[in-house]
Write a structure and sequence with these properties.
Layout lengths: L4 H18 L8 H8 L3 H10 L9 E6 L5 E7 L4 E6 L13 H9 L16 E5 L2 E11 L4 E6 L4 E7 L11 E2 L5 E5 L17 H4 L2 E9 L13 E12 L3 E7 L7 E8 L2 E8 H4 L5 E3 L2 E4 L1 H6 L3 E6 L5 E4 L5 E5 L2 E6 H9 L4 E4 L2 E3 L2 H4 E6 L4 E6 L5 E6 L4 E6 L4 E7 L4 E5 L12 E6 L16 E7 L6 E8 L7 E5 L13 E2 L4 E2 L10 E5 L2 E9 L2 E3 L2 E5 L3 E8 L8 E5 L6 E3 L4 E7 L4 E6 L12 E7 L7 H4 L6 H34 L6 H29 L3 H33 L2
Parallel strand pairs: 11-16, 36-39, 38-44
Antiparallel strand pairs: 1-2, 1-32, 2-3, 4-5, 5-6, 6-7, 8-9, 9-10, 10-11, 12-13, 13-14, 14-17, 15-16, 18-19, 19-20, 20-23, 21-22, 24-25, 25-26, 26-27, 28-29, 29-30, 30-31, 33-34, 35-36, 36-37, 39-42, 40-41, 40-43, 43-44
Helix pairs in contact: 11-13, 12-13
The chain binds copper (II) ion (CU).
């Protein structure tokens, strides 16, 4: 079952020979050849060059888009539009064990009101955390329109850290916004319903019983106790509040910033009448509250009396409303976009210059608070902002065009005709006080017009990259994202996010705390109490320890596993065959997998993430004995080796020791080079060297073991431990050589 390295090398050598024999010389095509053959124009090639990512190149921006309805977030780069990661948020995601390991399952279950595990989420408009109105790269928030949930993701490790179901909203708008210092995360209802599981008649009780509301979730940022700078902020229900509103259908909303900090604007409608609502949450936060399902609640009457909420009537429905980068204006995405003046609006609200009330909510005079308006096109879906002063973009769905316009001068500057019907827009850093530009992404809401490949009745979602760096805008790239129904996205300068490489050893990544199940090398054990079995195991190339676990049919088994690796991207996966469990263990992570061993038999467990050429060596056996089974004395004895087998293991061991000595020479020469050239002066090289020696440190136990077994003449065990030691050595040499290469490049710069 186990391949030796020698067998693998022989196989590779054979394959190479076969390839060499059958190949003939074919010259590389020139750029002109390729253009001709594929029918590409100069413009096509220019577009390709603009998004091409040279090896070692780095995207300028990270972008995040929700899958719309599979509950997963997609991380991609701008301008390459390469997808980097899928992150489970509202639904289980097996690759990273999300909703499979005990830690993330507990987090998801705690986030519901009935301890169930929803397998679905509808996520559309994310928000990045802000400090002083600017993206700080620490957190990202999402809401789930399908199950009234809100989620917090950490951008240190791109993992979901908290999911909470709203204590009484039955339907929530699948979008979220933050206040300029992320003091609050804003979550609103969407379709009006009675609260607290009441039944009411839509005909008779609608206006009195159906409700809408806005929740201000209090957010606290903090760093982990271990001092690694890992951010472990949380939403705090006990410090949050909701304002109760009449039965409006609520839609897109945004928070004010700078001079308009303290206000929230959003879209509301009732019986075919449309409004922009203005909400002063700072006034609302000072009002008296009652409790509903442990959430503080402000009554509609108190809110109105305090001048903290009003409606601005608008003639036609809008599809979005956004605060401009300066915080001076809020602008509707509508066929005729309306630009509103925040200062005038705030003054009118403060002075209660109210017109006729709607469902008890006062209105403001639209003309009095409006700065101006401009017709942009038909079925305008969204707007986005530029770093150029007062410049915005609009997507006109029916007109198949992007409009660049100036919202201060109220003039259209230019247009880009598209081959598709555009939906939601995004500029990098676009929903912050400092939008960047050069790029605009546009979702293709239909995927019909570009002659996309037919892959059956459901097509992927498409997002286009538009180059907006010059006066002439250009559509330069189309990315397809499967398993998604795309809406809004957000994007932040890549260097604003500081992702970690490894966790402090034994971290429960969902809480940021050191797990009480953390297990270090040599401390692996199996504990049993009645029918409850706890396996405290470790993962490191290329072993899962323990290698054999015996339980009885019906036992409840938990594998608490710790990945001991300190190396970059050395994640191990774990599954027990046919038991449907799966975990992902990033370097340093501890997670637990619990299942009932309800079928007798032999079940291999193994590492499911390719972690080295010997990754399949990471395996073990779960023996589930039939209930009441007693092994015979013969079976209980370990099978003895024949003298020939013992001799063979001895030889294998001696061969391995030779290889170990040769590898050590390589390491010694690398170490000499690194020391001579003062590697410690270069932080990244130093980090690699630390990584390398960390590997060797881990190896000490293996060396002690093989020397002991060899001294005792137990050649099989001696060989296996020598093999393990060599694994560490190879990794050390590998990292060491990378450090050497980097150092020589830095020196010769
Ligand atoms: Cu592995």
């Amino acid at each position: 079952m186990k391949h030796t390295f020698k067998q693998l090398s022989t196989l590779l050598a054979l394959l190479l020979m076969v390839c060499m024999v059958s190949s003939e010389v074919i010259a590389q095509q020139s750029l002109a050849d390729v253009k001709k053959k594929r029918g590409l124009t100069d413009d096509d090639v220019l577009s390709a060059v603009k998004t091409f990512m040279p090896r070692g190149g780095r995207d300028e921006y990270f972008a995040f888009v929700g899958s719309g309805n599979s509950g997963t977030m997609v991380v991609y780069g701008l301008p390459s539009m390469r997808i980097y990661k899928y992150v489970g948020v509202f639904s289980p995601e097996p690759w990273q064990g999300y909703g499979f390991d005990d830690e993330s399952t507990l987090m998801l279950k705690k986030g519901t009101n009935d301890n169930l595990l929803p397998g679905y989420g509808d996520m559309r408009f994310p928000a990045l955390s802000e400090t002083g109105g600017k993206y700080d790269g620490k957190y990202l928030f999402y809401t789930d329109g399908g199950n009234s949930r809100i989620a917090l993701l950490g951008l240190d490790d791109f993992e979901t850290k908290q999911v909470l179901m709203h204590p009484f909203f039955v339907s929530t708008f699948p979008g979220v916004a933050v206040t300029p210092n992320t003091e609050y995360v804003i979550h609103t209802s969407q379709f009006p319903t009675p609260w607290n599981e009441k039944i009411a008649s839509v005909d008779n009780d609608y206006e009195s019983t159906f409700k809408s509301g806005i929740t201000m979730w209090k957010f606290h940022d903090s760093e982990d106790a271990a001092g690694t700078g890992h951010h472990i902020g949380r939403l705090i229900k006990e410090e949050s509040f909701t304002v109760e509103l009449p039965p409006f259908t609520l839609d897109y909303f945004d928070a004010g910033r700078a001079a308009s900090n303290g206000l929230v604007v959003g879209l509301a409608s009732f019986k075919n009448n449309h409004y922009v609502y203005v909400f002063d949450y700072q006034k609302a936060a000072k009002l008296k509250t009652t409790k509903l399902n442990d959430m503080a609640l402000v009554s509609t009457q108190d809110l109105v009396d305090a001048g903290a909420f009003a409606l601005i009537p608008i003639a036609a429905p809008a599809r979005s409303v956004k605060t401009d980068p300066t915080g001076n204006f809020f602008i509707t995405a509508a066929d005729e976009a309306q630009v509103f003046d925040f200062a005038k609006t705030k003054a009118a609200l403060d002075q209660k210059q109210f017109g006729q009330a709607v469902l008890g909510i006062p209105t403001l005079n639209t003309e009095a608070v409006q700065y101006g308006k401009l017709a942009l096109g038909q079925k305008v879906m969204d707007i986005a902002f530029d770093y150029r002063k007062n410049v915005a973009y609009a997507s006109a769905f029916n007109d198949k065009k992007i409009v660049r316009w100036n919202y201060k001068d109220l003039k259209i500057e230019s247009e880009l005709a598209l081959s598709f019907r555009p939906g939601h827009l995004m500029t990098p850093q676009g929903n912050s006080a400092e939008p960047h530009s050069n790029y605009l992404t546009v979702t293709d809401k239909e995927g019909l017009y570009d002659k996309h490949i037919n892959i059956g009745p459901t097509r992927p979602s498409y997002q286009h990259l538009i180059d907006i760096s010059s006066d002439e805008m250009r559509d330069i790239y189309t990315m397809s994202i499967p398993q998604s129904n795309l809406y809004g996205s957000v994007s932040v300068l890549r260097t604003t996010i500081k992702p970690i490489i490894r966790y402090p050893l034994g971290t429960n990544t969902r809480t940021g705390e050191i797990s009480r199940y953390r297990t270090v090398a040599g401390q692996e054990k199996i504990e049993r109490e009645g029918n409850r079995v706890h396996v405290f195991g470790t993962l490191i190339r290329s072993h899962i320890t323990p290698e054999i676990v015996e339980v009885e049919e019906g036992d409840v088994v938990t594998f608490h596993l710790t990945n001991l690796e300190r190396a970059e991207d050395e994640t191990h996966g774990f599954t027990v065959s046919t038991y449907g469990i799966h975990g992902s263990f990033e370097p340093g992570k501890t997670a637990s997998l619990t299942f009932k061993a309800n079928r007798a038999g032999v079940f291999p467990y193994y590492c499911t993430e390719f972690c080295s050429a010997l990754h399949l060596e990471m395996e073990g056996i779960l023996l589930v004995r039939p209930k009441g089974y007693k092994p015979s004395p013969e079976e209980a004895k370990e099978a003895a080796l024949t003298p020939q087998e013992l001799e063979q293991y001895k030889k294998n061991y001696e061969d391995k020791i030779k290889v170990i000595n040769e590898t050590q020479e390589v390491i010694n020469s690398v170490v000499a080079y690194l020391k001579e050239n003062k590697y410690e002066k270069y932080p990244y090289v130093e980090a690699l060297v630390v990584d390398a020696f960390d590997q060797l440190e881990q190896a000490k136990t293996s060396k002690a073991n093989y020397e002991r077994y060899a001294a005792e003449g137990k050649w099989r065990d001696a060989f296996l431990w020598a093999e393990q030691y060599w694994q560490y050595q190879v990794k050390t040499a590998d990292v060491g050589l990378r450090a050497k290469k980097l150092l020589s490049e830095l020196i010769n710069k």
